[in-house]
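Quick start: read one record
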Amino acid sequence: MRKKITSIAIMLILIFCIFTQCSTNARAWGNGSGSNSTYPYYGIHDIIADIAYKTLKNYNSTYVQYITNWYIQYGGDFEKSFNAGSSSPSAHDNYLAYTDDPDSYIQDWNNHLYYVHVGGSQGAPGRVAQLYNYLVSNLTWYIKNGTQKWCKEEHYAAYYAGILSHYLGDMTQYGHTEHTQKDHSHPSYDPLGDTYHGYYESGDWETQGLSAIISTLNSQTYAISQISNPYDATVNLAKWVNAHDGTTTSFTDTDGSHYTLGSTYVYMLNRFVSQYDAGTSYNGMRGYDSVLWNLTVQHLRAAVENFTSLLYTAYKQALQNAGDTIKPTVSITYPTNGSVLSSATVTVTGTASDNAGIQKVEISRDGTTWVLCSGTTNWSATIVLASGPNVIYARATDISGNWNITTVNVTVSVDEMDFSNPFFVASQLIMLILAFCVSHRRCTGSKI
């Protein structure tokens, strides 16, 4: 009897392990696998959120300071991640951990889909718009209250940004833009008990594939623009993924049903099924070839670009809602006021700060014509001054359009010829011309 119980227990453990492995691997595309030592719980949804955050941070770090304060590198997990009582980020409560909550905890599956032609599931655009509004609302109060680190509004804003990336990112998986029986049928080679849909988006995204997609997406350039309507932007993204050129094609499903579907959806589904059945692999992923890889890269790049723009737009809208009227501060650290300079060409350096963020810093020698500086919070630019007394102006403009100016007075005293100074060069040319004219008059007796 004891042997029988032991055998049953072992069998149950094995079954549990098999299903655990299946579910873990099946989450690889979206949320990462806990068994992956290189990228633990770091999947496609994490990559989209991560690269968008870093892209906007490079553009202007103030726009994503609320995310920075709740960010942990490779901080993904697969569980309920948000704890309203947290006062600082942790392994299970951080920006990248939030990206899996729609799958691991919320599980509102209709909101992960937007079927362009097949009716029944249209929830994703509305969910994106809802979360965008939650994000803007919390950012507005975060800004009004002085952008306090780890405050409640900052925490909620980081959370809504994280889960928003998931719903938007799902629109770039072609299997989320239409539904067919073929997509959700099981192939003959079915090691995880999954469907073609699952194997495209989940089963084969392991270390090689994740490394390749991370490298490829990091090498892309992303345009940042203001989005007028998050709902429409989500619909347009799904429609483009479904059919790049907007065309449709007829499709006969495995149960004999006839549909009119997006051309890109049909092309990718048929290609993936045939490649998977043939055992073709690309970057370690069964079913992929270079064509499917490139199409997937295009879709994920669109996800990053759209999400970056949503984050940008949300912060801009929150600033407007908060009614930011605070002027930035700007200072010139070199040259100092009252300096005597031995060269007319000088590299001016300084600092600037603002509650909302610095958009740009410019310098001028007359207060009218401005030169854009390199950098914002720490900035520099080279300017050419005139011999004698000069005023150097520095003007900082914040991302709400408020600006402020500071000045320093300096004197240029050139003891030797300075051919880098256009004023010196011009004066020397004038002197040469006059000398030539005088010499010519003496030689010819002519009058000037």
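The mean pLDDT is 88.
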